[in-house]
């Protein structure tokens, strides 16, 4: 076993790592990755949601080579910019729901969210509203790991860092299956979600709120599509109090939900879009803040007054990353990737639904090519498994043994296969998963659960 002692693994159970050992991956082909011993895994998680056009797409490899040969890298400060970055900004506005706007480049989704918060603070300060600083996100949301974006992320683990920072607020999570009350219809539930948000706004003072950030479908929170009508109600409330809606499309953007944007899937009319992950299909670190017309105007006014927007990342707008993003977007659109997501959706969602017949599957959920299975000890009253069973990890680890990568998220496992997945490969995913679930469930039963 290779020794990874000197690596500080992030988002990894370090105690368990000593037992299971790391997985060192050195090669990939299509939707498969290979470890150092040559073992092959079908990656039903597209890397980390992002490698959607295939790990070795020849057009991507060729684009990187060509761009490195031509112009290997440059910053985007002091009015300097490379051609691919200009083209990518144009392209992102063209394919966005906005008729016009501006794009700011970062290296990651976290930085894009962080940048957006600073941008809102900057605008509000210049407009004479220095107290309009509070940010609302939802419980279970994921927006990243920098001090600000982690404060936005609605997960309990951030208390390990003494986060969230002051002024980062979390409204209720619209997961009907889990949080719906007894005898509460989905419609009533959604109404309650709206009330929760509005009460929070009123309690804090509407004129202290700088923005509301939401993922169209919560991703790392466990693949949680909104309850029916949720975003209609939310948008009404935000409009009423003049609060900008920022769509964190880091996972949903570029086709995951079956449309180019999750905002289209859920009729969201955002003021700003945050993009990353699929934007380069995992070939380069890149994030983007896409401002619509209104925010662009406000931003420009503030920037003229302040002389500049004092913000930027050394490698933001890197020409190689931007060239790769242009290529990935072209592949997604012109090689009919979104059509394939739509074609596979019923097979994928139907396959997940079938598992609801198994004893310990409480809920299957998802949309497009993002889905989750949540496991419970007792289906009737949705009683969760004891934490010591680590049910999600157990399934994910057994999947690895069986050559399938899918990710545990608490008591759930998440699947988000690449957009190039074939029907045959989808069959392999479900056959392997079925075998794995049956193995794990009989193991769990023998533990006396
Ligand atoms: C992954 C993710 C982020 C953070 O992106 P990084 O590139 O890991 O910093 C932000 N928002 C959402 C919705 C994400 O899924």
Topology:
Elements: H1 14-20, E1 25-29, E2 32-35, E3 40-43, H2 46-49, H3 58-70, H4 83-95, E4 102-106, H5 109-126, E5 134-138, H6 147-152, E6 168-171, H7 176-179, H8 186-204, E7 209-214, H9 230-240, E8 245-248, H10 262-265, E9 272-275, E10 287-291, H11 293-306, H12 319-334, H13 337-354, E11 361-367, E12 370-375, H14 391-401, E13 404-405, E14 407-409, E15 412-415, H15 423-446
Parallel strand pairs: 3-13, 5-6, 5-7, 7-8, 8-9
Antiparallel strand pairs: 1-2, 2-3, 4-10, 9-10, 11-12, 12-15, 14-15
Helix pairs in contact: 3-12, 4-12, 5-11, 8-9, 14-15
The protein binds pyridoxal-5'-phosphate.
Short key terms for the protein model shown above:
449 residues, alpha/beta, seven-stranded mixed β-sheet, four-stranded mixed β-sheet, 15 helices, 15 strands, binds pyridoxal-5'-phosphate
Describe this structure in words.
With 449 residues, this protein is of the alpha/beta class. The protein is 41% helix and 15% strand. β11 and β12 (370-375) form a beta hairpin. α3 (58-70) runs antiparallel to α12, α4 (83-95) packs parallel to α12 (319-334) and α14 (391-401) packs across α15 (423-446). The structure holds pyridoxal-5'-phosphate. Pyridoxal-5'-phosphate (PLP) binds at residues 108-110, 113, 142-144, 215, 219-220, 248, 250-251, 276-277. Residues 108-110, 113, 142-144, 215, 219-220, 248, 250-251, 276-277 line the site of pyridoxal-5'-phosphate (PLP).
